[in-house]
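A quick aside before the break. I want you to see a complete sequence-to-structure record at least once, exactly as it would be stored in a machine-readable document. Don't worry about memorizing anything.
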Amino acid sequence: MTFMLILLSLSPPNDVIAHDRPNDAGSTISLSWALSVDDSLIDGYIILKRERSAIETEYEKIGSTVRGVGTFEDENAQDGVPYEYVVAAVMDDEVFHSAPSNPVVSSPQVFHKGRINVLVAIGVFTAMVAYFVTKARSGKGLFIRKIAGLAAVDEAVGRATEMGRPILYVPGLGDIDWTATIASMNILGEVAKKVARYDTALIVPNRWSVTYTVSKEVVKEAFISEGSPEKFKDEYVRYVTEAQFGFAAAITGIMMRDKPATNFFIGRFWAESLIMAETGSQTGAFQIAGTDSVLQLPFFVTACDYTLIGEELYAASAYLSREPLLLGSLKAQDYGKLIVLVILLSFTVISFFSINLLPVLRVQ
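That is the input. The structure line, written in tokens, reads:
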């Protein structure tokens, strides 16, 4: 008898409000409602939806929630179509419906208002790039700190020329889609220009067919830009093998047979790095290495004369070519990092004094 009285007195949820979810790509409507007064007694809530059009349609169940939850998102709404929602409290087989919600229509938004900070950051960075590129093109010098490994490239090429021995350039073992390999191609172009200028022999072994093709074009273009296309030889750029240690064995074989005066190891390397660098060291070659692989850096630092560490690898192209577009981009990146560092330090200090700025910043 008591159970029957409870069923008869259960209250439905109230104040069902529907609205288009802001800052999204459309097709989603958010619902909220006031929980039933008897929330602790019910099993949960079911959500019903129908199109609000000239022709009356039946409500269809589109989802459910457990008790204590007063929100739901309908992610299957059709943009531009008006909908009406009802939320019902459920206990066993009994259902207690709310009043219908307000009509609502979903639509996509072109701009996410919660990402204004990203827009501001892009605008500031773009302005800095434009400023530094313009400054570089006007002939005003942009200071870039000396990078020892890159400053030694002229010495490395000159040494090979004086000794009459070739230069070995290994563009890493990564395929062309590795960022370090792309950076290596830029450096290879600058090294190849110096090789063409001094008329020195060059050996560029490659692990991947696509990398081989790109390397060949880069070297050939460098010879053409120096006005010496006839000095380029097809055997300068070689395809070896895709096998990791087969490639390493081939490189060490070249070192032992051809005795290169200078070895460049620029790109992505794995466990074979020490084998190649140590062999080059034993042959007495002048060695310059550069990689973004943190695990291989200690081996190169130990066995090579100079090592480009981390971002130095990516700055090398701008450093060697002095091309205004690259220099401007490099300077803008440095100032961008400085701004980020200042922001991080500022918020660290603010946090230290227990000042909560999240409500003001509206972080999403």
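Two observations worth writing down. DSSP finds twelve helices and 13 strands in the chain. The longest strand covers residues 83-91. We'll return to this after the break.
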